[in-house]
Amino acid sequence: MSKSTSETENTQGGLTRRTLLKTSAAGALAAGIGGTAVQTSGAATDEQSENTAYGNCWQCHKLCGMEVTLEENSEGTEVATEVHGIDGHPRGSAGEGTKGTLCPKGLSQVEKAYSPKRIKEPYVRKDGELTAVSWDEAFEYAADKLETFKEEHGAESLVEFHGWGTAGTFSTLFGNLYGCPNSVPHPTPTCFGSMAVTGTLMGLGGGNIRWVDYENTEYVLVWGRDVLETFAGQWEAKQLLKARERGATIVTIDPVYTETAKKSDKWLPIKPRTDGALALAIANVIIEEELYDAEFVENYTHGFDAYKEAVEGKTPEWAAEKTGLDAEVIREVALGFGRAAPNAGITSWTGLGQSADHQKGAQNLVALTGLVGNIDRPGGQRWFGSAGLSNPFEVGCEAELPNNAEGNQCYLTDPEAGYASLTKKPVQNNVPEMVDNGDVNGMVYYYRNPVTDGATQEWLGTDETDGALDKMDLVIGIDAFWSETTKKADVVFPESSQLEKPMLGSGGYGAYNTEAWVTGSKAAIDPQWNTKPGFDIIQGLGRAMGYDDYFVWDSKEEYINDQLSGLDLTLDDLEDEDTYVLTGEYGYEKWKKGGFAQGADTFWFDLDKKLTGAYEKLSEQAGAEIGTGPQWVPPGTIGDELSEEYPLEMLDARTVEFSHGGDQALTKPLEQLAESYDHEHADYRGNYLVMHTEDAAARDIEDGDMVTISSDHGEAELMAFVTEGIRPGAVSVEPYGFGRGSIQPDEDGANNMLLNSPDQIDPISGEIDRHIAISVTKSGGEN
Ligand SMILES: Nc1nc2c(c(=O)[nH]1)N[C@H]1C(S)=C(S)[C@@H](COP(=O)(O)OP(=O)(O)OC[C@H]3O[C@@H](n4cnc5c(=O)[nH]c(N)nc54)[C@H](O)[C@@H]3O)O[C@H]1N2
Ligand SMILES: Nc1nc2c(c(=O)[nH]1)N[C@H]1C(S)=C(S)[C@@H](COP(=O)(O)OP(=O)(O)OC[C@H]3O[C@@H](n4cnc5c(=O)[nH]c(N)nc54)[C@H](O)[C@@H]3O)O[C@H]1N2
Ligand code: SF4
Ligand SMILES: [Mo]
What PANTHER family does this protein's entry cite (predicted)? Predict the structure, then answer.
């Protein structure tokens, strides 16, 4: 193979999570010793030869460009045998002249394409049994059922879930055309709602707390995010490491000694859900030392007085008591960050985005960006520009697309209506209740498994009781694997995998910090078995439903060319350019021209003119005064409280081998996971409960024991991984969501959302709370 295979071989340097954690004393951990990030790569050859094709990986929807090696098999069919990254690719490289890589999930796309566990035919339910049928029959069957459903229950009784892939087109079919107002998009309320809604309301933008201008930064707070695990192989992980090499200080704030913590200058093993206290203390030092950007605060912010009041007295000593961190370390970090700003950034995502108590924690954290004025400035929070693809329905169709769902907007598009439980708009956790009270009677889903995401017990039911999935009149899914959800559906459309279909996407964040880009590719191999690309499925169903005027394309490639038309590009052009094209430059301080998020002319420390009703309601519910400004809200005020019966705080996280549950059926990632936790010799191939040595010893639990995790709502069983690399009192399920309700319902591992109850959501954003009070007991002998 070509030049850079050495990195592939050196992926883990012979070090597993366990050896790293075992060999590190707590002091050395906190000081941040080096470690080896789990970064895997294949390397692209410079020239595309006759037996190669291009692809774009969508396994975690980041679109890393792929070069696919093709070989003829004994039957004369071209099969994909290997995939590699593409040099200079906006996602899978660190910019021009740098190597393109793929993470283990990307590398397992060849296994996915040929996996026998995939759904191979369309299925419809006949006499109670899922039965394989032709595509035409499946489309007709689904269209008939949807028509009858509308007559009986109305389109507003359907709920539509979507994830990756051609998701926008799916929403257009069910929203604009069929008239279903209940679109539950993938991103916000399941992903990082507490942070996204707060960030949007404050003016930073929902996502901009995630992206640092790494190329120019001097100081980075990695705060409740594990960049080197969840963005391994991508530009961001590479830029973070480069920034450190350049001399920037990296501080990771996480209860777990993560891959990123291992590569940081400092690890702050914070007590979960106390981040709001740390953020206020950092502000306290910065204000006290006059390190803030007075000019920005004066001219571009609103509510600074309320912020100053909230920060008053919140010294590092005060925060040390709440967070379990050292006051001197807090002071040092505050001074380091404050002095480096605006050349300093924060990257935060799900650690503070997935809990109800963090709603205020997120506000305190986002407030720091307004304080130091690092928003869209070199070295600070980056606002990326996007290429701006055209709407294919506007380009391709003569008929104007109606909006038959109008009048019933999804709550997240209307922040004033943000109080999810008041508006009765569906979020993951309240769909089962809406099914019970008759508001929702059917569901369609695409590249998504709402059942693993939260309130899993209510979705699935028990041996004795039916769950929401059983009670609905109609369930239609487009999926690749036989998840428990798919098995209960009435219609199952099998989607072709990444290598079998044309793809297009655009940045967004990427290796080109000041240039927008698009990336796309044709299908590298034919659809396997009797599957179809998502676009063909949606268009086929749309036509069967009578929407021929809107589904007018001869192929997905033609549809993509319509998307590219405003940029004067075609899919052929992208293939000629190794899948990607840079489309235009953008600069810094874009808020000076376009305003802050939602067009506001200032950044908001205090949300006193927004969502006031929702905060009043929230105070009532929490039994505590929760205002509109930054504030310290202790854990347990809105979310779970630890108790004698449930004394441990359960968190969960991702690992580099899996994209949520979407590739759990593949052998290679399962093997890699077991190896990485040093349990490859056990039969077990599930996820792990990471627990501290002291917490394990107190329960007579040893590394490799099977343990039962229980909350007052449910229980599950998985293998313990005992380590010093987590804060005592916290336990983390890594990665989340195996077993019941997943795509491998009968295999090893725990779906920790069986322990989550429907009311465990952030009432402002509807985000599912993933900080759950639990007990852990040993359930079996050594495995
Ligand atoms: N406990 C817990 N739950 C979480 C999270 C957490 O941290 N903890 N994180 C949340 C976050 S941040 C997110 S973004 C959501 C994501 O949640 P989802 O959007 O549901 O993500 P996936 O599990 O990747 O995808 C779901 C389904 O996609 C199917 N699939 C796989 N490949 C294909 C394909 O090629 N085509 C089609 N059509 N389907 C395919 C799989 O069968 C799988 O069931 O999960 C959330 N759920
Ligand atoms: N390999 C892989 N990569 C992915 C995905 C995937 O499924 N697999 N999914 C993609 C998606 S959709 C998303 S949203 C991103 C998410 O990307 P990340 O946010 O990086 O996801 P996690 O690895 O869950 O990291 C969250 C971190 O927060 C920590 N944490 C938990 N509770 C607290 C707390 O109270 N305080 C603090 N300070 N930290 C806390 C956890 O220990 C964990 O290390 O990843 C993306 N990338
Ligand atoms: S799964 Fe890996 S290779 Fe695929 S898009 Fe995501 S980061 Fe890129
Ligand atoms: Mo997410």
Answer: OXIDOREDUCTASE YYAE-RELATED, TRIMETHYLAMINE-N-OXIDE REDUCTASE
What are the phi and psi torsion angles at 721 (to 5°)?
Answer: -120, 110
Grouping H, G, I as helix, E, B as strand and the rest as coil, residue 194 is: helix
Q: Is 497 in the pocket of ligand 1 (CB under 6 A)?
A: yes
- Nearest atom in ligand 3 to the alpha carbon of residue 91 is 8
- CA-61 nearest atom, ligand 3: 5
| 663 and 760 fall within a common domain | yes
Q: Choose which residue among 123, 161, 225, 453 to substitute to test ligand 1 binding: the one with the highest number of ligand atoms within 8 A of its C-beta.
A: 453
Cβ neighbours around 401 below 10 Å, total: 15
Tell whether 89 and 215 lie within a shared domain: no
- In tens, the pLDDT along 401-425 reads 999 988 654 444 444 545 454 445 6
Backbone angles phi, psi at 152, to 5 degrees: -80, -40
Q: How far is CA 739 from CA 447, 673, 748, in A?
A: 18, 15, 6
Query: Alpha carbon of 227 to those of 62, 350, 376, 647: distances in Å?
Result: 14, 11, 20, 29
On average, the pLDDT of the chain sits at: 90
In a domain, 55, yes or no: yes
Domain shared by 238 and 300, yes or no: yes
Angle at 645 between CA 639 and CA 649, to 5 degrees: 45
> The domain spanning residue 311 has which CATH number?
3.40.228.10
User: What distance in Å separates the CA atoms of residue 205 and residue 202, rounded to the nearest whole number?
Assistant: 7
> CA-CA distance, 740 to 455, in Å (whole number)?
12
The number of distinct structural domains making up the chain is 4
pLDDT for the residue 42: 37
Looking at the structure, do residues 364 and 260 belong to the same domain, yes or no? yes
Dump pLDDT digits (tens) for 121-175. 999 999 999 999 999 999 999 999 999 999 999 998 999 999 877 788 999 999 9
